[in-house]
Amino acid sequence: MSGTLPTTAGQPLLRRADLGGLSLPNRVVMAPLTRGRAANAALVPTELHAAYYGQRATAGLIITEGTWVSERAVGFVHVPGIYREDQIAGWRRVTDVVHALGGRIVLQLWHTGAASHPDHLGGELPGGPSAVNPRTRSFTADGFKETVTPREMTTADIAATVADFRTAAENARRAGFDGVEIGALGAFLIAQFLNPRLNRRTDAYGGDRTGRRRLLLDIVDAVAEPWRGRCVGVRLAPYWTEGEHFRADEETLADHDALVTELNDRPVAYLHLRGRDRTAADEAPDLAALARYRRRFDGPLIANNGFDRESGNAVLDAGIADAVSFGTHFIANPDLVTRFALRQEPAVGDPASYYTGGAEGYVDYPVSGMGVPLLERR
Q: Which intervals hold domain NADH:flavin oxidoreductase/NADH oxidase N-terminal (predicted)?
């Protein structure tokens, strides 16, 4: 192997970027990945989390696994929270390690809403926008279980939830994070409120697209307060398809068009956009689907759509995104940025260990063997 350092030549992924006030050495973002390693009663991040994220500190930006904003938010086994002092201390160990290794890390804030299960909530029903079963599954201590019909959240419940997000954002700042990301995708709470099939309310939080998006906008405003407008991201998935209630059509896409446009008037540092589902592993990402929202959002956009090195460089070359997030690739490739620089094929992870707990399949993946910094030639 030559002693030449990898450079950005021909690879936009390796170029520097500014994202919400953060200076990124490259445009390779680690996407949120639920890994189920907080296997303790208090849902506290452990030394394993510090090792795991520290191994991936060469990413331009790390976005953590979705993290519970409150006890009522819980909906998946062994996922950490950010609502207790011991959880804050656990995350501080993580951020200290990542920063010591030169990395940048933001915390994704998560609430499952009606996609939770009574097993997570002491036997109580989860809350949702309306008493409509989202018909998805929740991963409990006894394995996956079908969701139930939730109770409709009262306006007091909604106000308390917005306050929980604000407190979680403040706790993330105390824990040393560089920012926060609001998880508003999938089959989870905020996406449930955005969904006309699940949100059948007739009050200020439903009725039309303006009402349906109010919860997210209230949360954005609340979360931005402790960060004073610095590095608050929003993750959306306009094309999310799951079961009978979650499907993209002209109504839901138009709802997201209006929502993304309105985010321009809020203190949002970046938009993290999940693209259209692909029907085959070798199908190219749908760049037009991403471009629809690039045209509507004025700030930096992170694209996520099962990209590899070539397609990631292509979406940046096309000007559709400012950075690209990678999920599965980061599981088995803690040194993914170096592998991209060397044009190496990424290793393949073991799905059997994705949620099993412990070090195996979490912090034991090898690196490529070239632990050198990536330099941009100017």
A: 18-340
Structure tokens at 186: 């999938």
- Give the residue ranges of DSSP H helices in 318-369: 328-332, 336-341
> Could you tell me the CATH number of the domain that includes residue 208?
3.20.20.70
- Residue 1 CB neighbours (<10 A): 6
Confidence band for 120, pLDDT divided at 50, 70 and 90: very high
Asked whether the beta carbons of 362 and 52 are under 8 A apart, the reply is yes
Distance CA 301, CA 190 (A): 20
Range of the domain at 178: 15-328
> Is residue 339 assigned to a domain?
no
User: What pLDDT is recorded for position 345?
Assistant: 94
| CA 302/CA 317 separation, integer angstroms | 13
Helix (H), strand (E) at residue 210: helix 209-212
Tokens of 256: 């997201």
DSSP states along 75-119: -BTT--BSSSHHHHHHHHHHHHHHHHTT--EEEEEE--GGGS-GG
C-alpha angle 10-16-20 in degrees, rounded to nearest 5: 140
Percentage helix, strand, coil for the chain under 3-state DSSP, each rounded to 5: 35, 15, 50
Q: What is the pLDDT of residues 14-66, one digit of tens each?
A: 999 999 889 999 999 999 999 999 999 999 999 999 999 999 999 999 999 99
Q: In this structure, is residue 121 part of a structural domain?
A: yes
Residue 375 belongs to a domain: no
Q: 324 pairs with which residues across the strands?
A: 28, 303
State the pLDDT at residue 10: 83
Is 372 a domain residue? no
Domain count, the chain: 1
